[in-house]
Amino acid sequence: MELQFLGTGAGMPSSRRNVTSIALRFTDRKSAFWMFDCGEGTQHQLLRSPLKLSKLEKVFITHLHGDHLYGLPGLLNTRSNQGAVTPLEIYGPKGLKTFLDTVFRLSGTHLGFPWHVTEIGGDFPPGGPALFEDETHRVYCAKLNHRLECYGFRIEEKDKPGRLDEQRLKQLNVPPGPIYGRLKRGETVELEDGRVLHGPDFVGEPIRGRTVTILGDTRPCSNAERLARHADVLVHEATFMGDMLDEALQYGHSTSVTAAETAAKANCRTLILTHISSRYQDEDIDRLRKEARAIAGDVHVAEDFWSWPIERRNGSAASGSSCHGTIVEK
């Protein structure tokens, strides 16, 4: 899995940062991706990225403020014009379907692919029923503390079966084939010669799934911490520096310091700050990062078109030098 940041600014676009949109790309599934928020101009950002609209499977909208939403109608229309026919699932707060229906009705737009909006009502917190679940992932969400109804999302990759000890099976003269698959699934298999093999005896420890938490705009709140608990990566807004806490709280936002405090309380592995006010430029960005690193340790500030590979905990740790994009860690 890999995070691709398409827009990292707050409120309105600037020459350096477009408004919010983040893609979660599944590199093992032919680069299929899910999108989190879709501010105005997102489809233009896509043209400058490795992402293809035909590979978009799901869209999650945190809230209905324009800098997180206004790009969605145009993006869906372009996906249709490009000939996409695969279904698209869209999740977001109440009112999202009315917004899209109204735009498409007034503009005479018809989408050439099936699409469905699931409007979120209430929380789907970790440990409870999931907002969405398939064979490989679960998605949870919970309401945050913003001026408008706003949600954060927790994406959990399910554990994968451990590696099959094929060398040991060959030493036992067990021929490759369907038997290997059955053993990897944990089944008990009786061979033609009467020997009985138990799958768990030949399979290593499960491969731990990864967890990514992507929050919408929010003041510090307990649900943000719950969604981020032990996450491999937490993507958190940091609209203001630490010395502007009063302004942040007034407008329903976080600072670099409060975002880092949430990450530290939740015991996250990596914190990525985004939704950065246009008032902050080069040296200020370094200050944002340093403020947060003093509390949370592994902290990065996202830039447009920057990507972050989400490594497994039992693999090599991700580092800024291994990432792709224009950001320079100091």
Could you explain the architecture of this structure?
The protein has two domains: about 1-160 and about 205-320, Metallo-beta-lactamase, Chain A, CATH 3.60.15.10; about 165-200, no CATH class. Helices cover about 25% and strands about 25% of the residues. By secondary structure, the chain is of the alpha/beta class. The strands form three sheets. Strands 6-5-4-3-2-1-16 form a seven-stranded mixed beta sheet. It starts with a strand and ends in a 21-residue tail after the last strand. The protein has helices at about 40-45, 70-80, 95-105, 165-170, 180-185, 220-230, 245-250, 255-265, 280-295, and strands at about 1-5, 20-25, 30-35, 55-60, 90-95, 115-120, 130-135, 135-145, 150-155, 190, 195-200, 210-215, 235, 270-275, 300, 305-310.
List the helices and strands and how they pair.
Blueprint: E1 2-7, E2 21-26, E3 32-36, H1 42-47, E4 56-60, H2 72-81, E5 88-93, H3 96-107, E6 115-120, E7 132-133, E8 137-143, E9 151-157, H4 166-171, H5 178-184, E10 188-190, E11 196-198, E12 211-215, H6 222-228, E13 233-237, H7 245-250, H8 256-266, E14 270-274, H9 282-296, E15 299-301, E16 307-309
Parallel strand pairs: 3-4, 4-5, 5-6, 12-13, 13-14, 14-15
Antiparallel strand pairs: 1-2, 1-16, 2-3, 7-8, 8-9, 9-12, 10-11
